[in-house]
From TrEMBL:
The UniProt record lists the keyword Phosphoprotein: no
Enzymatic class: oxidoreductase
Protein name: 3-hydroxyisobutyrate dehydrogenase
Active site per database record: 209
Gene: HIBADH
Gene3D superfamilies membership: N-(1-d-carboxylethyl)-l-norvaline Dehydrogenase, domain 2, NAD(P)-binding Rossmann-like Domain
Subcellular location: Mitochondrion
Domain of life: Eukaryota
Metabolic or biological pathway: Amino-acid degradation; L-valine degradation
InterPro entries cross-referenced by the UniProt entry: 3-OH-isobutyrate_DH-rel_CS, 6-PGluconate_DH-like_C_sf, 6PGD_dom2, 6PGDH_NADP-bd, HIBADH, HIBADH-like_NADP-bd, HIBADH-related, NAD(P)-bd_dom_sf
EC number: 1.1.1.31
The 6-phosphogluconate dehydrogenase NADP-binding domain, residue ranges: 42-200
Amino acid sequence: MAASLRLFGAASGLRYWSWRLRPAAGSLAAVCSRSVASKTPVGFIGLGNMGNPMAKNLMKHGYPLIIYDVFPDACKEFQDAGEQVVSSPADVAEKADRIITMLPTSINAVEAYSGANGILKKVKKGSLLIDSSTIDPAVSKELAKEVEKMGAVFMDAPVSGGVGAARSGNLTFMVGGVEDEFAAAQELLGCMGSNVVYCGAVGTGQAAKICNNMLLAISMIGTAEAMNLGIRLGLDPKLLAKILNMSSGRCWSSDTYNPVPGVMDGVPSANNYQGGFGTTLMAKDLGLAQDSATSTKSPILLGSLAHQIYRMMCAKGYSKKDFSSVFQFLREEETF
């Protein structure tokens, strides 16, 4: 792995695997359950908040799993369900020729693939390796080169939709890699998501995800600011949310993942901001966006401000809370 990596331009040539392009059999679920689908074991590395439900959806579609996570406790429920747990990513590669990785950072991904006990130590020729982590696009490109040297195929396929969509199997996958391999990747990804988007060469999936998460952070901060202001002006938060969601200010952060406690059930704000997508991870993704903006000389004024806000949150005790806790952060920070 090169000591220093440069980022390259944003994705181009986006192609969406739409209903028009899908097989006549119908839905993604139908594709997953086709008799022609090979139900040989699938390796899955990384069983965190997102990886856990993603792996479970593969199980629901009949795929035996070869499991690994750095935290053995994360594997226990899969082992209890009869899935095979191994002791390293290399062992996963020895037993499975299709592997999905879902890891927090670029460093974790590099270790899982290129480390002393990484996938590349025992990967088989012709294996399909799909990385659904959100990492530096340049790291994805470097990993792809290393994988190609071993005669295998690497695709980046980060996700959007959050824990709720991971549980329900409605994630959006943004896929970068050789287009001829897209159908093989889609067979698996379609079992975990309702949208599978081909973005172009390796790294373009990551580029799309970075742009999405920058916008998500900006919209979450905006929703939190608007809700906080309205509450301080005497509006009932549920009423304000209802008005926003039938008006032009509506967005995913307001109508699906509202950051104000008591407005919605089943979201982190209803559970003291536990679970969901951590503030540390959002700060990491905004850092990737900042690096990409610097390398492409792209102005991201609001993206940079969002990055600073989430970094401040991490420094003030919010690192393990869901990123929607920016509402609580703003409520407590009277000095802005």
